[in-house]
Amino acid sequence: KKVLVSVKNLVKHFPIRAGVFKRVVAWVRAVDDISFDIYEGETLGLVGESGCGKTTAGMTILRLYEPTSGRIIVGEEDTTYYFLPRYKAAKYLKNTYVKKFETEDPETFTGVDKKYYEMYKKLGKDGFLKEMLDNIKEKRSEFRKTMQIVFQDPYSSLNPRLRVKTIVSEGPVLHGTIKKSNVIDKVKEALEEVGIHGGHMYRFPHEFSGGQRQRIGIARALLMNPKLIVADEAVAALDVSIRSQVINLMLDLQKKHNLTYLFISHDLSVIKYISDRVIVMYLGKIAEMAPKNILFEEPLHPYTKALMSAIPVPNPEYKKKRIILQGDVPSPVNPPKGCRFHPRCPVAKEICSKQEPQLKELNPGHYVACHFPGTLK
Ligand code: SF4
Question: Is 282 in the pocket of ligand 1 (CB under 6 A)?
Answer without folding.
Answer: no
